[in-house]
Amino acid sequence: MTVTTPAGFRAAGVTAGLKPSGRSDLALVVNDGPLAVAAGVFTTNRVVAAPVVWSRTAVADGVARAVVLNSGGANACTGPEGFADTHRTAEHLAAALGIDSQDVLVCSTGLIGERLPMEKLLAGIDAAVAAVADRSTDGGDAAAAAIMTTDTVAKTVHVPGPDASDDATGPAWSVGGMAKGAGMLAPGLATMLVVLTTDAVVDAERADAALRGATRRTFDRVDSDGCMSTNDTVLLLASGASGVTPGAGELEAALELACAKLARALVADAEGASHDIAVTVRNASSEDAAVAVARAVTRSNLFKAAIFGNDPNWGRVLAAAGTVPESVAPYDPLTLDVSINGVQVCRAGGVGEDRTLVDLAGAREVRVELDLHAGDAEATVWTNDLTHDYVHENSAYST
Amino acid sequence: MTVTTPAGFRAAGVTAGLKPSGRSDLALVVNDGPLAVAAGVFTTNRVVAAPVVWSRTAVADGVARAVVLNSGGANACTGPEGFADTHRTAEHLAAALGIDSQDVLVCSTGLIGERLPMEKLLAGIDAAVAAVADRSTDGGDAAAAAIMTTDTVAKTVHVPGPDASDDATGPAWSVGGMAKGAGMLAPGLATMLVVLTTDAVVDAERADAALRGATRRTFDRVDSDGCMSTNDTVLLLASGASGVTPGAGELEAALELACAKLARALVADAEGASHDIAVTVRNASSEDAAVAVARAVTRSNLFKAAIFGNDPNWGRVLAAAGTVPESVAPYDPLTLDVSINGVQVCRAGGVGEDRTLVDLAGAREVRVELDLHAGDAEATVWTNDLTHDYVHENSAYST
C-alpha cells in the first residue's frame, strides 16, 4: 500500500553504495500515464539544495514522468558543481527511460556540504531502471526503504477514493504515498521527502492547489525541532490510469488524509523522541493566530524538555504563548486555560487542577490544549519532546 | 566588586526558607542617595509575573530607593493573589525602611505557577533589613548569592569610570552590578535578574536611555535556548554619591561594559552547556539584519547539538541563515562564507577548507563568523551548545 498501489506507477529501491551502512539508498518512481501530471511544494529556506533548484523548475510546467530520490547525501551547499551533478542525474535517468530530462524530478537527503559520488549514483540509476523494467515485482516498499536516513521505519500510505455509487467494485481511484523524515521537521516543511501518487484524472492546476492545501494543513503543522531543511520536497504525480475524475473535494480530502497520515508517521519516528505532542489552540481570533501560538509552544525547548521529564509544566506553555505578538494573536493572558491530557492545570492564567493528576509517564501521546478565549478558530501543531537521544543523534550524525 | 562598590548603596542576602535546598534566597539593595534615580527594562513576554507588573509601574517615575529580590519562586501565573503578594512585599519593605512603597522594586525568580510562602518571605525581609542596618558588613556578595537559582556561580561586576584627569585619585565614580540567570536566556531578555548601581550623578532620562542602549547590545544578544522568561528584569539605580556627572558617553560606555561582562557570565554559566558560542554576522545590510541572521543560527537546535558533538557542521549554519526572510536580511546564498574558529569551512555557499582542521574538542569558546557580503554592518549573538545536561536539567527542574 504505497506509491505503486494506484494504477499507472512503477517503483524501485536499490543500493547504489552512497551510504556507509550499505543499506539501500536510491529510489525511483515512474509514472506510466496516460497522464504525466505533477505538482511540487518545496522548502521555503533561502539556502536550497541543488535538487530543489532543479525540481522546482522542472515541475513548474505541471508535467513529470519520473522521480529519482537518493539518501546518503543532500547535495546542498555544493555550489555550481552540485547543480551540475543534479543535472547529470536527470539527464542520465531521462536517457535510460527515453524521456525528456525536464520531466525528471530529483530529490536528495543526507549530509549537507558534500558532493555526491556520481559514478555510484549513476550506476544505481541503471540498476533502478532495470528493476522497474521487471514488472513482476512491486518496488513500492523498496523505494520507501531506500529514502530512509535516520528513520527507523519506512513510511507509506494508501487512501482509497470514495466507493463508486452505482456498483460494488469499490473505489475507482486512490492516493498512495511514501515519506522519509525523522528530524529537522519544521514549518515550510521538514527534511522530508514525500512522493504522493494518484491514478485519478486531474489536471495540473487542480493537482497543485490540492497539494498546497493538503501540505499547509499537515506537513506545515509538524514542528519537530524548529529547524528548516534545505531539501524538503513534497511531490504529487497523477497518472489518470483509473480514468475517473474525482468529484469536487474528493481528491482534496483523500490527499489531505494521506498527507496527515504521513505527517503523523514522521512525528512518531522523530529522532530520539519519547513523546508525541499535539498542541491544540482553541478559540483563537483566526486560524493563523492559532497556528502561531501553537507553533510557539512546540518550539519551546524548555516545554519540550519538561515533557521528556514527564512534567506537565504548564507555566512553560504560557511563557511560550506570551512570546507571540498581540498583533498576530490577540488574547488576554489573564483568561488563558491550559489542559494537559484532559486535566485543566491552568485556569484563567493561574493555577488550575493539581498537576500531579496528569500522568505522562505511561503515555506516548501528550495532548496540550490552550484556550485563548479570543474567537472561534482552532489549529493543532505536532511536535516531540526534547530528549537525551535527540541531542545524541544530532551531535553524532555526521561523525 | 559588586552592587555595593559604588558609593551610596547597601545590600544583604539572607535565607528566608523559600528554597528546599536551604540556601540563601532573599536579596535586598538599598540606595542611600542623595539621588534615588532608577530605570528598568523588563521582559517583552505578554505573560508576565506579578513582580514585573509591579516594578514596571513603580519605576515609571524614575525613582526607587530599594530593590527586593527573591529566588525560590517566580510568582508568575499566580493570578490576582500573586499580585497581592508582590504588593504586600513592597509595603512590608517600605514600612521597615520608612520609605514609600512606590519606591520599592520587586523581582522574583524560580518556578512558575506557585504562590510564594509569604510569611517566610516577609520574615526574610525583616532579616535583610536588619542585615543592611549593620554597616560594618558589606552584603554585596551575599545579595548576589541569594538570587541564584540553577546558577553555579554568583555573577558580579564592577566597572570604574574614567580616571579624573586633574589628579591621581583614580575614577570618581563607577558602575557595579549583579546578575542571576543560567538558562531561558533569550532576546527581549532572559530569566535573568540584574541590578546595576552607580554613584554617578545622572537624571532619570539619561539613566533610562543608557540602560536601554546597553541592554539592547548586550543582554538582548544572548540567546541560550530561545525561551523568553516571564520575569526578566534589568534595573539601574543611581545614588549620585560621587557628586560627579559623567561626561558625554562615559556613563553609557561603563554601563554597556558592565552589562556585557554580566551577559558573558550568563552564557558561561548556562544550564548544562559545554561550549560558549559567539555567532558574528559580518557585512550585513544593517545591524538589525546581522542580529536577525545571527539569532537564527543561535536558535538552531541542530547547529547547537552539532557543536556539542564537536562537529563544525557549517551546513546547519547556512540552513539556519536561510530561514531569515530576504525582506529582513538581503543576501545572496551563493556568496555566503562561514568560518569556525578561524577555519573558512564554507566559501561562496559551498565547501571551503577541510572541516577536520577545526578542533572544537579542546575549546570552550566557539567563534562562528558568517559573511553575508551585503553591506558593512555587523553583530554578535551569544549562545551555548545543546547538551545532554541541558535536557536533563530542564526536564528535572520542577521535580
UniProtKB/TrEMBL annotation, chains A, B:
Q: Which InterPro entries match?
A: Arg_biosynth_ArgJ, ArgJ-like_dom_sf, ArgJ_beta_C
What keywords does the record list, in alphabetical order? Acyltransferase, Amino-acid biosynthesis, Arginine biosynthesis, Autocatalytic cleavage, Cytoplasm, Multifunctional enzyme, Transferase
Per UniProt, substrate binds at: 149, 180, 191, 271, 394, 399
- Report the SUPFAM superfamilies cross-referenced here: DmpA/ArgJ-like (SSF56266)
Q: Which reaction does it catalyse?
A: L-glutamate + acetyl-CoA = N-acetyl-L-glutamate + CoA + H(+); N(2)-acetyl-L-ornithine + L-glutamate = N-acetyl-L-glutamate + L-ornithine
Keyword Isomerase assigned to the entry: answer is: no
Which biological process terms from the Gene Ontology are attached to this UniProt entry?
L-arginine biosynthetic process; ornithine biosynthetic process
Q: Please indicate which residues carry the site annotation Cleavage.
A: 190-191
* Summary of the function given for this chain in its UniProt record: Catalyzes two activities which are involved in the cyclic version of arginine biosynthesis: the synthesis of N-acetylglutamate from glutamate and acetyl-CoA as the acetyl donor, and of ornithine by transacetylation between N(2)-acetylornithine and glutamate.
Q: What is this protein called?
A: Arginine biosynthesis bifunctional protein ArgJ
Q: Which organism is it from?
A: Salana multivorans
Q: Which gene holds the coding sequence for this protein?
A: argJ
